[in-house]
Design brief:
This protein is of the alpha/beta class. 36% of the residues lie in helices and 15% in strands. The protein folds into two domains: 141 residues, Glycogen Phosphorylase B (Rossmann fold); 167 residues, Glycogen Phosphorylase B (Rossmann fold), CATH 3.40.50. The model has no long low-confidence stretch (mean pLDDT 93).
């Protein structure tokens, strides 16, 4: 069995997770556990520029190095500059959580002496230490797979709930967005999109859910990307439902503030679902009966969340009826106290 890695005061560790928002959020327990085990070491994170804002204000992190994945693929100078930046930081250890081929190669070319990644892949040639686990089996949560990286260290105490740390001014920015939208009091957020990362509950069903909740005098807000805004409005017009549509009106940190202020968030298996859970808001997660997208691996972390799936194994997402989702949301609203 390989000797476990020991770290000394001042050693610098790089944790690389360069894919989506939800994936990065589910890596936060590993990041914080490494820092908790080695408080006198410096922990840096390599993350995509899109997802990196979720790490702001986290005192476990020394530096976040943001990258543009498209530029890495197309710009040789950008690639080389990143290699030079990482090499100049004199890392002792790099943990490659998402073993993208380009990132794995950059970690190798940066001459980091201990490079840890998963075994039995082509990219494994770039690593010096290996984890022998397969995530494809979906036997445990993604955050637990990430925490497996602690096994290579001498000290390996772990925490498992991710947190997003908001500043007061960020919450105030979110309050202003809500005030401008004429939202006051308790409210529910519906986030229909998934960024293509999962099978989705149909948008039309989300609009019908919005109508049901509004009929019961609940404030409802839709969030999403700027590309999704027009589609939301178009379907709402067709179904004659008025929307408070904040799609495209928030950056990641302001969205986190809105999700923090919400009482319940309904979403597909997507980054904003994990963002809501990580700021302490109860979520209703909508998941397909698809092994690769199992809530066992991708479900929300924390207490009080609800995971709903189609009633029968072969049913599509559309088999979940808006009125049934509404009952779950109303139950949470009725049995929870005002939080903020």
């Amino acid at each position: 069995m390989p000797k476990k890695i020991s770290l000394e005061k001042g050693d610098r560790i790089l944790i690389s997770r360069t894919d989506r928002i939800g994936d990065l959020i589910l890596t936060i327990p590993l990041i914080e556990s490494v820092k908790a085990n080695y408080p006198e070491c410096l922990v840096d994170v390599l993350a995509s520029d899109y997802a990196a804002p979720v790490l702001e204000n986290n005192i476990s992190i020394n530096e976040v190095i943001k990258i543009n994945n498209n530029s890495l693929k197309s710009d040789g100078d950008y690639f080389q500059k990143l290699c030079e930046t990482l090499q100049s930081n004199n890392y002792k250890v790099a943990l490659v959580i998402y073993p993208d081929k380009i990132i794995s190669k950059i970690i190798f070319k940066s001459k980091i002496p201990i490079r840890v990644g998963t075994a039995r892949r082509f990219k494994s040639i770039y690593f010096t230490r290996f984890l022998f686990h397969s995530r494809k089996a979906n036997k445990k949560h993604e955050s637990e797979y990430n925490l497996d990286y602690l096994k290579i260290f001498e000290s390996s105490k772990a925490g498992n709930i991710p947190h997003i740390y908001l500043k007061e001014e960020e919450i105030n920015d979110a309050k202003k967005v809500l005030t401008d939208a004429k939202i006051s009091g308790r409210f529910i957020v519906l986030h229909p999109g998934s960024g293509g990362s999962a099978d989705c509950w149909p948008l039309g069903h989300f609009i019908e859910l919005c109508y049901i909740l509004k009929e019961r005098n609940y404030n409802v807000v839709l969030t999403g990307s700027s590309e999704e805004k027009k589609e939301f409005d178009k379907i709402a017009d067709r179904k004659d439902v008025s929307l408070i549509n904040l799609a495209g009106k928030t950056d990641v940190r302001t969205l986190a503030g809105i999700l923090f202020l919400a009482d319940v968030v309904v979403a597909n298996s997507t980054g904003p679902l994990h963002l809501a859970a990580a700021v302490g808001t109860k979520v209703v997660g909508l998941y397909p009966n698809n092994f690769a997208m199992s809530p066992v691996r991708w479900g929300p972390l924390g207490k009080g969340h609800q995971v709903l799936q189609p009633p029968n194994e072969k049913d599509k997402m559309s088999a979940m009826k808006p009125e049934d989702i509404a009952k779950t949301v109303i139950s949470i609203m009725s049995n929870s106290e005002v939080r903020k």
